[in-house]
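Hi X.,

You mentioned you wanted examples for the new student's onboarding notes, showing what a folding record looks like when two proteins sit in one file. Here is a clean example. The first protein comes first, with its sequence line followed by its structure tokens.
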Amino acid sequence: MKILKRRPEASPEPVNLEQLARELQRRRELADARRADQLERARAEAGHGRARADVATESRLAELARAEREADVRAEAELARMYREFRAAGERTRIRAVMARSGEARALRLEWLRARNLRVLVPVLIGFGVWSTTGVQQGAARLMDVHADSPVWWTLWGLEALLIGAVCWIIVCRARLAASGGALARQAEKVGFGCLFTSIVLNLVAAVPAGDASQVSEWAVASSMFAHALGPVGAAVTAHLIGVIDQSIAEADPWHDQDGQAVPRLAEMEMRPREDASADSVRIGTRPGASSSALDAGVQCSPEGVAAGRSAVWPVPAGSG
């Protein structure tokens, strides 16, 4: 059995207090330096984050300002376009009103009324002629004593068409002569009224009952005569109305007014578009509070734009009056 002997503990070295104080001071200064460095790092990181946020905010504000300027410019461009359109429409209306007061426009309106008079009333005349066709055929067949087995009876269906056709042709010729400064002879008008009178007589003959008329009441005869005479009398009244209107148109003087003063001609009128005071530079202002850049970007109507607006005014339709 081996007996271990314990070594005696070394005696501690003597401690230098001054050196220990310096070592502890150095360690405290090192810890303070580490804490100061951490604070500086945290402060720098926080400042960097704030700077990034400021940059992002400035970027958003710049985008909003740019969008606002673009909206201002678009609104001003739309206002300028509306101004040009309304100005062109106003000039067009003014020129049309000036042209409507000219002698040429008055003459064109008279010619339009003459043509419309024929287009409206001649079909009415033909309609009354169709109404009286049966009465004319029956009256002529009764006077000639022909029946359905005779070719003459069938031919008489075209008699009213011939009479009304002659009247219509006389009316058209009278209108054409009046438009050319002429006048229809009285003999032709007498022929037209003779055709209408013949149609009336034949319709009245057709209204008279055949055979023994003692059993037919006078009221029935009068009613039949009225119904038969309605067509030819209406045709005669329509023909007379066409003549009266056409004569009134022929007597109208488009070159002088009611006081006898001469109506200005187109060549004497000022029909060029008016030059506004702001025609060279029409500027639509921005609303209060807009930035100066948006104001500088305001839409202006240049002389080229004014020229484009003038081209929208012309030409004015010749028949607009």
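Then the second protein repeats the pattern, sequence line and then tokens:
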Amino acid sequence: MRHAALQAWLLVGLAPLSAALTARGAGFDESKLPPPAATQADYERDIQPIFASACFRCHGPERPKSGFRLDNQTSAHKGGEHGVAIVPGQSAKSPLVYYVARLVDNMEMPPPGKGEPLTAEQVALIRAWIDQGARYPAAATQAPMVKVFSISPALRGVWVSGNARQFREHWWMPDGTSGGLEGFAWQEPLGPGARIAGEG
């Protein structure tokens, strides 16, 4: 009984470790990958079209799955819920390469039924791009900064019994319903790590 309990504890305890190692590329078989393309890979010419057709629908700025975005360098290099996916300079240690080559069970990208598998030539270009630093153009280095403005509407109803005209004149209130603005809040980014905000 104790042996079975210990075995179960070990399985539970090792599961997160196994997932973490997989996320870092441990156990991937590089021999099954196409070699990196023998060319200077350009993001806008070679990589962005691949990502746009196969990746951005799920890993773009709109509700990125697993918290992983590929549309800008900061987010792509940071990774998502499954850990770092791109290791600049080391495509063989970059889980993204194995995902798009469909060599990892349950992590095939694009997922089956969600898009056409990447060709060996496309995977080779991604490998070359990562080996050369996985650099994005300057305009796509940072995640886009978004201005935020929100308002809180208010609705008020006033019904008067008695001398309604005198009440309205005294309190400057119309009879019946009226709307207005209870409050507002806004914030605007000034740059990396800085923003200006206000409320009222």
